[in-house]
Structures are given as structure tokens and as C-alpha cells.
Design goal:
heterodimer; A: 182 residues; mainly alpha; two-stranded antiparallel sheet; B: 191 residues; 8 helices
Chain lengths: 182, 191
């Protein structure tokens, strides 16, 4: 009994030592900057920046291939954080990239033909439905990325701005207009 | 020397681990869609299996002996899990592309029953150290051979005009069955 325990503990300790050593020896030098940038990005994976997701965009920023003002879901706040992180100047959103009023997609169910193309396009699985069945957007899951609008063959998806009501109102972030006083 | 050669031929062709012993089917079906992934998986499994059968022989022979034989399976699993972790680190360091391609199947080598099966068969057949190593290496070679063949066939099947109900996994299963039949033809090659 004792021998069995000792043998198993011995094996475990030996393997642990080998693995611990090789974890240091074979450590993968990931780019820490990419991870930091990725942490600032909103992780909606919407692709509005022109990259297939937040991580590829973060990699492009880290390489210096992309500007920091291409992430509408992050808002101006996001650009400010990225500018702070990278020691760059704040640049406003480019033409057409500015964040629109927060909105959710809406499917006109009279027109929908149930082709499932929008379901495949949705990055957050916010569309319920099946082939030849009417589709519906789960409003609470929708990030408003607009990726479902382009594939729809019958143009039955529209973006509805979310009005502010008692269920989704929240305090604004405080804004200190420092520049304005100069 | 001929004995070692016989072990190799026997494990690669006659007693092929996948086609004849029907072990390790998960990666066989899972990672055989692309040829490069199949080669990578074969290489990783070869590394793990050779190291694993050597290490488990040492453990079985010097650490456990006949008194603690009931710990065989348990300790083999622990050792194999350790070696797979080690392999994963090495692959991640040396070939990030392969690491991406293998994905979940790399840690799943741990639960590849071929990797546990061969050390246990070694114990059963009372192989010595060299024979165990060769048995593991040969088994892994056979695994790689079958993976590569099967991946090649599947890549061609992509372009073939397969009847609707046979598309995808079904035709892959049929192909695997036919390959297994073909490997039966090797029986009797080594007496």
C-alpha cells in the first residue's frame, strides 16, 4: 500500500518537475502588446474594422499596419484608451466609421424567406430560425454590428435605434472638457 | 536483428494498430481531412508513442514489478499524459502553424487508445526494452502510414461525385472499412 503510494507520488513529482522545467524552457513568447490591445477592444468580433475579428485587428495595430480609429463598437473612449496604451495622439473616427446610435437589427417577418444567410453571418448567434422558417433577432444578444444586413437577399433586415428607457439607461461616463478652457 | 525487423514489419502492416487492432480511431477520423494535418498528427503520435512505450517499459520493469502490477494502467496513463503535455509544449514552440492545425487533437493524444494500448500490449507480450521501443515506434509508423493514406483518399473524395446520402462521414467510414479489409491481406506475411 505504502509502496504503491510512494511510486505514484514519485512518478507525479518527477513528471511535474520535467513539465515545469520544459514550461520555462519552451516558453512561447507571445506578443504581450497584442494581448494588451486585444484586452482594450470590445470583443464584439464584428469585423467593422476590416479585419476578421478583434484579435487580428489587435495584431495589425501592434504591427503598425492599422490606425487605432477603426473600431466603432469601442467608441471614442476605445480610441482614447488605445492612444494612451500606444503613446499615440488621439485621432477621431474616419469617414463613415463613426459609431452610430446604438441600435439592434430587426427582421421584417413578412418579407423574410428563411434563407439562413443572416444566421451564418451573425458573429454572436443572435438570430433564431431555421431553413424556410421565419428568422427573428434576439434583441438582447444583438450587438448592432450590421453584418447580417449585407447577406440578406430580400433586404428585410433594418437597424432600429434603441431608445433610452428605464431598463437600459445608465449613468454617462464623466467627461472633463480640459481643452475647452484653454 | 531480423527479429527487430520482423517486429517493425509486423506492427506496421500485419498488426496495424488502426486497421487491424482498431485502436486510435478518434484521430484517424478526426484529423484525416487534410494531408498536412495528418502528417503532423502522425509525427506527434510517433514521438509520444515511442517515448511512451520506452518510459512505460522502464516503469513497469523497474518501478512496479510483479508486486505492484495493479498500478500498470494508472501509472501508464499518468506518464502518457505527462509526455503529451511535453510534446504539446515542444510543438507549440517549434511549429505554431502545426499547433493551430492539430488544435484539440494534440492534447487528445492523451486519450488516444493506441497510445495506451501499445504499452499494455508490450506488457502482455513480455517484450524487453528494445522490443518495446520498436513495437511503439512501429505501431506509430503504421498509424502514420494509415493516416497519410486515408487523408490522401479523403482529399480525393472531396472532388468525387459521391451520392447524396453517402456524403461526408458516411463515405469516410466506408473507405475506412475497405482499407481495413485491404490490410487484412497482409496477415500471413509474417509467421
Amino acid at each position: 500500500m505504502i509502496a504503491a503510494l510512494l511510486v505514484m507520488i514519485g512518478i507525479a513529482v518527477f513528471l511535474g518537475a520535467v513539465l515545469g522545467f520544459s514550461a520555462i524552457k519552451f516558453k512561447v513568447q507571445g506578443n504581450p502588446l497584442v494581448d494588451k490591445i486585444d484586452a482594450v477592444l470590445p470583443q464584439t468580433q464584428c469585423g467593422q474594422c476590416g479585419y476578421p475579428g478583434c484579435k487580428p485587428y489587435a495584431e495589425a495595430i501592434a504591427k503598425g499596419e492599422a490606425e487605432i480609429n477603426k473600431c466603432p463598437p469601442g467608441g471614442e473612449e476605445g480610441i482614447r484608451k488605445l492612444a494612451d496604451l500606444l503613446g499615440k495622439e488621439f485621432i477621431p473616427f474616419g469617414e463613415g466609421a463613426a459609431p452610430k446610435a446604438k441600435s439592434v437589427a430587426f427582421i421584417d417577418e413578412n418579407i423574410c424567406i428563411g434563407c439562413t444567410l443572416c444566421i451564418q453571418a451573425c458573429p454572436v448567434d443572435a438570430i433564431a430560425g431555421a431553413a424556410k422558417q421565419m428568422h427573428t433577432i434576439i434583441a438582447s444578444e444583438c450587438t448592432g454590428c450590421e453584418l447580417c444586413i449585407a447577406p440578406c437577399p430580400v433586404d428585410c433586415i433594418s437597424m432600429l435605434p434603441i431608445g433610452e428607457d428605464i431598463t437600459n439607461w445608465k449613468w454617462r461616463y464623466p467627461v472633463f472638457p480640459i481643452r475647452a478652457t484653454i | 536483428m531480423t527479429e527487430y525487423l520482423l517486429i517493425l514489419v509486423s506492427t506496421v502492416f500485419v498488426n496495424n494498430i488502426v486497421m487491424v487492432k482498431i485502436l486510435g480511431l478518434c484521430p484517424f477520423m478526426g484529423v484525416s481531412k487534410k494531408l498536412e494535418a495528418a502528417v503532423g498528427m502522425g509525427a506527434a503520435t510517433t514521438f509520444v508513442l515511442t517515448l511512451g512505450s520506452g518510459a512505460s517499459y522502464l516503469i513497469q520493469h523497474y518501478l512496479l514489478g510483479p508486486d505492484l502490477a495493479y498500478l500498470t494502467t494508472l501509472s501508464f496513463i499518468v506518464v502518457i499524459a505527462g509526455i503529451v503535455q511535453f510534446t504539446e509544449m515542444v510543438v507549440q514552440k517549434t511549429s505554431p502553424a502545426l499547433y493551430q492545425v492539430l488544435g484539440i487533437y494534440l492534447p487528445l493524444i492523451t486519450t488516444n487508445c493506441a497510445v495506451l494500448g501499445i504499452p499494455l500490449l508490450n506488457v502482455q507480450a513480455k517484450h524487453d526494452f528494445m522490443e518495446s521501443l520498436l513495437f511503439g515506434f512501429g505501431g506509430a509508423l503504421g498509424f502514420t502510414l494509415v493516416m497519410v493514406l486515408f487523408a490522401g483518399i479523403r482529399e480525393r473524395l472531396e472532388g468525387a461525385d459521391v451520392p447524396g446520402i453517402f456524403k461526408g462521414s458516411a463515405i469516410a467510414m466506408v473507405t475506412a472499412g475497405l482499407m481495413s479489409l485491404a490490410f487484412m491481406g497482409f496477415s500471413g506475411l509474417v509467421k
